[in-house]
Amino acid sequence: MTEQTLAWLQEEGRGTFFDYIGGRLTAVSDRRLEGEVTIEAHHLNHMGITHGGVYAAMLDHVMGYAAYHLKPKARVVTTNLSIHYVAPIRLAGRMKVSGEIVHATRQTITTKGSIYDEQGELLALATAAYRAKEG
Predict the structure, then answer these.
(1) What residue stretches are annotated with the Thioesterase domain (predicted)?
(2) Which of 26, 28, 40, 130 has the maximal Cβ count within 10 Å?
């Protein structure tokens, strides 16, 4: 079921901003998702490091899809996203992102996420809240 779920979530993301920036989902479990993106020139800011918006988009998508996976019949939207940027990642690095469910009620899902580079260095920590509305 995990491979089927991963394929379903990847298909759901086809043609979205996540897909446009090169994001890929790589693993799914009960309450956790993982993804990655290889950093290319168009991801960089004027200082030659990955733009903070790439961090935000990757975290929001992976944590949001963890929430969506929990409530697949609901419309899941972000209500709060808080990111602590810890370290930069440069061109040709691979950003590895995880999102995990922390708490869920009928309509609100709270998640936590992190970004690491290929060497295991922490790049960012995040929390997010999502509203899930069925119907």
Answers:
(1) 47-123
(2) 130
